[in-house]
Each structure stands twice: as C-alpha cells, then as structure tokens.
Amino acid sequence: MTTHTTTAGRTASGSILLPAIAAFAIGFGLIFMTGLVQADTLHDAAHDVRHATGFPCH
Amino acid sequence: MFSRILTSGLIAGAATGLIAALLQLWFVQPVLLHAELYESGQLIHNGAQAVSAHQPPGDFEWTRNLLSVLFTMLTYAGYGLMLTALLAVAEARGHVVTAQQGLIWGIAGFVTMQLAPAFGLAPEVPGVAAADVGQRAIWWLGTAAATGVALWLIAFGRSALTWGVAVVLILAPHVIGAPQPDAYAGTVPPELSAEFAGRALGTGLMAWAMLGLAVAWFWQRDTAHAALPQTA
C-alpha cells in the first residue's frame, strides 16, 4: 500500500486504463442483461424498458 | 480509481435512470399500452368501423411499472459506468471535463446507443413484424460500437484520416443495412408506431442529456476531492 497524490487531469494514462476497462465492461454487462439477453424471465421483466429504450425486443 | 469510476457512474446513472423511468412512464408507456390493445386484437384498425384514437388509460399496473423503473435504473447505471470510464480516460489524456461538456458527452451517448441504432431499427411498438431478434441484436451492437468509436475519433482525432475513418464507421452499418422482416404484419396503426418511436427517442435524448451532465458533475466533484492527499 502506498500513499500518493492524484491531481485532476494529471493521472497517468497507464493507471487509468485498467480500471476504466473494468468499469466499462461492468456497464456493458448491465446493458447487455437489461437490453439484450433473451431469457424469458429477464425479457418479461424488462419488456417495456426494452421497447422504450429502443433495444431489439422480441 | 476503479471505485471512483464505479461510484460516480453508478450514482449518476441510477439517479438519471429514475428520472428516465418517470419520463417513460409518463410519455411512452401510455402509447405502448394503447398499441397492445391492437397487438392483442382488442382493437382493430382499418376495419369496418372507425376506432376512436382516444382510449381510456386503464389501471396503473404496479408490479409491471416498478419492474420498468428498476430495469431503467439498471440500464442507465450501465450507461453511466461506460460514460464515466470513457470520461476518465479522456481526462487522463489531458481533456478537461466540465459539467457543460458533460452535456455533449451525453448527447454523443444518445447518438451512439439510441439514434444510430434507431436509424436502421426504429424503436419498436409491440406487435410489429421484425427480423430474427439475434440478428437484430448483432446489428444493433455493431452499430452502437462503430458509432461510438467514430464519435471518439471525431472528438479526439487530429488528422483528416481519422475523421475519414469516423465517417466510414458511422455510415457502414447503414450501408450494410439492418435486418428487416420478410413481410409486414403489424396490427398497430402507423400513427401510434410513429408516435411511439418519436416519444422513445425524445425521452432518450432528455435522459442522456441529464446523464451526461450528472456523470460529469459527479466526476468533477470526485476529482476535486481526489486532488487532496489520500491513501490509495
């Protein structure tokens, strides 16, 4: 564990990439689940949202 | 850093999702329920008798609508995470993100995730004919990905070549074309289908504009806090 100072706009590109990719992947997973997975239960629960948000539904 | 992206994205996304859900329940859901009367055969248009365009709204379905609120919040939490992750990368590359610029990020997100896919696959009212859902999902994802990359290249590219690539990426999915049904079988009046598509895109734009503002605002606030010495 190290102590360091992070300043706005000066974070090294390298240290941001991995957490950004991980967060992006989790976000994509959420959208994939709510919008695109065709399992019946998920489809039925998210039905109206899929239509209203423009995902392909049926 | 990961937890900063996670908290900013999730909080901004879920909060925006709640507002988006209310907008959808108010503006989109009545059109959807109206269309379902035609989908189920309770109403038939173009029959012998004219059907009133004004139908009673019906009872408020609590379970169905609360599930919609939950899933809209989850969807926008996902959008929020993706947007925050991209914002963090842009900031690390020297791009300053203000709340006002968040608005542009939000609109770019709307173009990527809703407008560009809708150009080929308009938001579907229940009961319309459509091609295989798997094929549409693949086209939808490919279009969103190509458009998103293209907008990034337009925003941060510095040469005519990158902008050229961006134009190709934006147009390619539409030149290829979205999967379309073999035959039309829609039972819902075209007036309702058009109203549904307009409402879905309109509420989407409102929600994405708020999401961009919220994500940038939370990120900026967290950045200010993170500027103080801390233990990582």
UniProtKB/TrEMBL annotation, chain A:
**TM region positions:** 16-37
Record key words, sorted = Membrane, Transmembrane, Transmembrane helix
**Pfam families assigned to the protein according to its UniProt record, in alphabetical order:** CbtB (PF09489)
Domain of life, per lineage? Bacteria
Q: Under which name does UniProt file this protein?
A: CbtB-domain containing protein
The organism's lineage is: Bacteria, Pseudomonadati, Pseudomonadota, Alphaproteobacteria, Rhodobacterales
From TrEMBL, chain B:
Is DNA damage among the key words of this record?
no
Q: Which UniProt keywords apply?
A: Membrane, Transmembrane, Transmembrane helix
Q: What is this protein called?
A: Cobalt transporter
List residues traversing the bilayer. Answer: 66-90, 102-122, 137-155, 160-176, 196-219
Q: Which InterPro entries match?
A: CbtA_put
